Please model this.
Amino acid sequence: IAYDPLEPSCESEVYDDCDLGDNCVYPCENLKLGIVEGYKAFAILYDRERRMNADLGVMCPADFDDSCPTAEFKAAYANTTLVGLIENYKVKIIGTKDSLVSLASTSVGGAMAEVEDFLCNMNVSFVERRYHEVRDDICIQLYGGVAQINWALWILSISLEV
Model:
């Protein structure tokens, strides 16, 4: 007789007086195995939950045998919980921010401002374009015009001499 979850019953009409042996049918055997397996799974998951809470550090379980965090977490990561690690990180970030703010008011901060000004002044891409424009204006147009005037005067002077 198999266990039917829709009609839970542990009664057997076949072997009423059978307590042991190979020919006995135990109608609640599947139910008993399900309860045992379910309890084992519950115990494993409950232990995992407690260990996760201990490693997170939000709440250390009161009846927890291990310390917060667990030995596995300490061996793999750090001696403090995850919340503790985040708090330490927060303190370090605040310290870094304060160091950077105080650095700006020292001579190093002044040097950094000078370097920034220098880099800003070195961004002179317009100089190349202006150089080519000035070169074209002076070398081609001005000297070309002077050369034309010079040749015109030579031709005029030769024409007057003849």
